[in-house]
Design a protein that fits this description.
This protein has 3 domains: 2-42, 434 Repressor (Amino-terminal Domain), CATH 1.10.260; 60-161 and 300-320, Response regulator (Rossmann fold), CATH 3.40.50; 164-296, Response regulator (Rossmann fold), CATH 3.40.50. It contains 12 helices and 11 strands. Strands 7-6-8-9-10-11 form a 6-stranded mixed β-sheet, sandwiched between helices. It has helices at residues 2-7, 11-18, 26-38, 72-86, 103-112, 128-139, 164-179, 196-211, 228-241, 255-265, 280-288, 299-315; strands at 60-67, 91-98, 120-122, 144-147, 158-160, 184-190, 216-223, 245-250, 272-276, 293-296, 327-329.
């Protein structure tokens, strides 16, 4: 009914479109699908349009290159890409896990895919070597989407991820409201500003800080390469150097290391802790009071959007990307699947 209201058609027409049945004009079908995508109900073509045996169309080979490691969000994204690709007869997908902070390793992997794939989704650092590899891959006729962290000025068919600058501003706003009046010292963590997404979050956060110079002071900045042990050691040092540290904002992964250091120091619940991505770990930190807020993005939706964008680009079909939403998660509004 929501889609019907948005599209200005009957619910019966929506039912026919979403289930791939006949009897709907092409223009009406496009209007319904566009409304459904805007409302977040679907990102793919209806089931009835999936290529079937005897159509003469082979499954599209898609490759996804993600950073290896213990980053819980990346693990969830990889799992969603695998699961959703298996459910589609029209896609043959491969997942490649590499050292994410090494531009040469990433560029080499992208080079290996030339002539062997119908589309590539990549979580990539913004580096000249990587940009050159993306350009070469695109010149070979391979459509590319950037995932989670964008790279501009390269020939990609789209970016699938949140507005990271807005997410950084949101983190700054939340922290300002949590801290309240007075002068507060804040420690800032990032995986690496080589990831454009991390750089944009930092910029957004610093803009909020600049609007409240009498309230918030960034006293340290650490690049922890999304590593829990690095995060743990850096947090211990910051807590030792700043007995009056009021808050921590973690732009990327490594929340487990930060939480462990806060718990061991006895300052968990005293230092405001804001981070990203709802996982089994951050859920526990919210429930225990170690973390105060998590800015979340949905890996299920990101995987769905990436698969569909690349599939349609390979088939020469049109596609209109839709910005992904962020949401603030605190203990009181944990989604059902995490409670």
């Amino acid at each position: 009914m929501d889609v019907a209201r948005e599209a200005g058609v009957s619910s019966a027409t929506v039912d026919r479109v979403l289930n791939g049945r006949t009897g709907v004009k092409p223009r009406t079908r496009d209007v319904v699908l566009d409304a459904a995508r805007r409302l977040g109900y679907v990102a793919a073509e209806p089931l009835g349009t999936t290529p079937l045996p005897g159509t003469g169309l082979s499954p599209v080979r898609l490759d996804f290159v993600l950073p290896a490691g213990s980053n819980s969000f990346m693990l969830k994204l990889g799992a969603e890409l695998r699961t959703q690709a298996v459910e589609r007869a029209d896609i043959d997908s491969r997942l490649h896990l590499i050292e994410g902070f090494n531009p040469d390793t990433l560029a080499s992997k992208l080079g290996e895919l030339e002539g062997r794939t119908g589309g590539v989704g990549v979580v990539a650092i913004d580096h000249p070597t990587v940009r050159d590899a993306i350009r070469n891959l695109a010149r070979s006729g391979v459509p590319i989407v950037t995932l989670v962290s964008d790279i501009q000025h390269v020939p990609r068919v789209g970016y699938v991820g949140i507005d990271n600058r807005s997410a950084g501003r949101l983190a700054g706003y939340i922290m300002f409201r949590f801290l309240g009046p007075g002068h507060h010292k804040v420690a800032l963590f990032a995986g690496s500003v080589s990831y454009r997404g991390h750089e944009e979050r930092e910029m957004g956060f610093r803009h909020i800080v600049s609007e409240h110079p009498d309230n918030i002071e960034i006293v340290s900045f650490s690049e922890i390469r999304d590593d829990d042990e690095r995060a743990y050691e850096a947090t211990r040092q910051h807590l030792a150097q700043h007995a009056d540290l009021s808050a921590i904002y973690n732009i990327g992964a490594g929340n487990r290391g930060i939480a462990r250091a806060l718990e061991e120091s006895g300052r968990a619940g005293q230092v405001v802790f804001v981070g990203h991505d709802l996982t089994e770990y951050t859920k526990q930190y919210l429930l225990s009071g170690v973390m105060d807020a998590v800015i979340d993005q949905n890996p299920r939706v990101e995987a769905r959007e990436a698969l569909e964008q690349l599939y349609r680009a390979n088939r020469g079909l049109g596609w209109s990307a839709h910005p992904l939403r962020t949401q603030i998660i605190v203990k009181e509004n944990l989604p059902d699947e995490f409670t």
